Amino acid sequence: xxxxxFMKKTIYMNTYSFWKAKNxxxxxxxxxxxxxxxxxxxxxxxxxxxxNGRHxxxxxxxACQGWYRDGRxxxxxxxxxxxxx
Length: 85
Known about the structure:
With 85 residues, this protein is mostly beta strands.
C-alpha cells in the first residue's frame, strides 16, 4: 500500500502542488501529475509526472510539460521510468 501526502504552497507569487510517497519521492498514480505549478495570473507553468521518484508517463504522453506566462507551450519531454525517450 502506498500512502501519498499532498502539499500546496505559494512562493514568490507562484503556486506549487506536490504529491509525495511516505519515503518523500514524488509519486502519483492513475495518470495524474505529481508536481504542478502556476503563474501569479493563475495560468499553468509546469506539470510533471512521476512514479517512485522517476519521471514517467504512459501512452506516449509527455512526463514534463511547460508553459510561458501567455499560455504557449515551450517544453515537452518524454520519459519511461526515468529514462528520456
